[in-house]
Amino acid sequence: MSTEERLLKALHDEHASALWRYALRLTGGDEGRAQDVVQETMLRAWRHPQVLSAPDVEARRWLFRTLRNRVIDEWRARQVRPEVVTDAPPERPTDDEVDAAVESLLVAEALRRLSPAHREVLVECFYQGRSVSEAARRLGVPPGTVKSRTYYALRALRVALAEMGVVEEGDG
């Protein structure tokens, strides 16, 4: 087995299961498509030897970004060439709608990676639009705890998004 093959196998062993779970979420639970996207991502890694020898964090970021881009490309291709033929042309979402949908999926995945306490406070304050005092009442904790959890939850969310390759570690 060549060095390149060993590096690709190690990359696959390290990241394939996480990539598959991520792909499964992005493809709406379609296991076949998720598997295809992971295989395509690994093939692209093999074609870019610098990824094989990159540090784990950089390789993981590259893999997740490549997988995400592949899913977006497939989605856009299906929008241009829909499978069902109708009398009226299908409405195509704008780039903004596509980006918003993908961002929504990515944030949902990142939220799943947070602790329940951090996830709860973000849902109450940002998704439900509750004030600190309203969130505190609903969660049964003091307002200071809501503020503190929100601060640390946002930091943890940024780390999760960085691990997924969505944002750079230093982005602010």
TrEMBL record:
<dbReference type="Pfam" id="PF04542">
    <property type="entry name" value="Sigma70_r2"/>
</dbReference>
<keyword id="KW-0805">Transcription regulation</keyword>
<dbReference type="InterPro" id="IPR013325">
    <property type="entry name" value="RNA_pol_sigma_r2"/>
</dbReference>
<dbReference type="InterPro" id="IPR013324">
    <property type="entry name" value="RNA_pol_sigma_r3/r4-like"/>
</dbReference>
<dbReference type="GO" id="GO:0016987">
    <property type="term" value="F:sigma factor activity"/>
</dbReference>
<keyword id="KW-0238">DNA-binding</keyword>
<dbReference type="Pfam" id="PF04545">
    <property type="entry name" value="Sigma70_r4"/>
</dbReference>
<dbReference type="InterPro" id="IPR036388">
    <property type="entry name" value="WH-like_DNA-bd_sf"/>
</dbReference>
<feature type="domain" description="RNA polymerase sigma-70 region 2">
    <location>
        <begin position="12"/>
        <end position="79"/>
    </location>
</feature>
<dbReference type="InterPro" id="IPR014284">
    <property type="entry name" value="RNA_pol_sigma-70_dom"/>
</dbReference>
<comment type="similarity">
    <text>Belongs to the sigma-70 factor family. ECF subfamily.</text>
</comment>
<dbReference type="GO" id="GO:0006352">
    <property type="term" value="P:DNA-templated transcription initiation"/>
</dbReference>
<dbReference type="InterPro" id="IPR039425">
    <property type="entry name" value="RNA_pol_sigma-70-like"/>
</dbReference>
<keyword id="KW-0804">Transcription</keyword>
<feature type="domain" description="RNA polymerase sigma-70 region 4">
    <location>
        <begin position="110"/>
        <end position="158"/>
    </location>
</feature>
<dbReference type="GO" id="GO:0003677">
    <property type="term" value="F:DNA binding"/>
</dbReference>
<protein>
    <submittedName>
        <fullName>RNA polymerase sigma-70 factor (ECF subfamily)</fullName>
    </submittedName>
</protein>
<dbReference type="InterPro" id="IPR007630">
    <property type="entry name" value="RNA_pol_sigma70_r4"/>
</dbReference>
<keyword id="KW-0731">Sigma factor</keyword>
<dbReference type="InterPro" id="IPR007627">
    <property type="entry name" value="RNA_pol_sigma70_r2"/>
</dbReference>
